[in-house]
Fold 3-oxoacyl-ACP reductase.
Amino acid sequence: MSRTVLVTGGGTGIGRAVAEYFAAQGDTVVITGRRSGPLKEVAAQSANVRAVTCDHTDPDALGRLLAELPEHIDVLINNAGGNTDLDAESGSEADLMSYARAFRANLEANLISAALTTKALESRLSAGGSVVQIGSIAADQASGSYGAAKAGLANWNLNVAAELGPRGITANVVSPGYIADTEFFRDRLSDERRSALVEATATGRAGVPSDIVGAVAFLASSAARHITGQVLNVNGGARSTR
């Protein structure tokens, strides 16, 4: 039976891979993000994918998004986010005001965006559906405001699971380790750092987007209807590299 799936941040990397998977299953997929170019590129490749530009940190933008969405959403994947520190200019002033802006940017991108999106869609989520948050191994490491935001996401997800559980809706977190072939590091990952991240795994390889797709697909499937409020680590058994 075809489902309706919303993937935030669906234009690149993990989000794109997830969207392409559900579309290939015959589901109707809506992808969102702030950049229209990548979204349109994905949508052009499948009749099952529709692109809508949206900044999920903006309540007004989410209000406009609702007008573009179907009445019922079966699967919500909160994937939009990323480490906003990687977008900051090097050598920026380390004063308290700058620190506050940088810290809030990661909270907005990774925690508040998911919270606002889930709240906005709460009444449209279908009974027996699924919410999947994309977390990070950074939540369990010393990773600054990005790690704090992802740790907060995992904690907040417990509330989502409790609130939506009576309607048969599950809410879980998929927590990736290092995933290659994404824009996460903005092409700034040194060979030495990449080698360290791979060597920290038990599997001896970097993750790829399809690894995350498999976990998301499972949590959104009929096989996972009694799994909720959980964090599924998909990191190849990685240890801390710090």
Q: What stands out?
A: DSSP finds seven helices and seven strands in the chain. The first helix runs from residue 13 to 24.
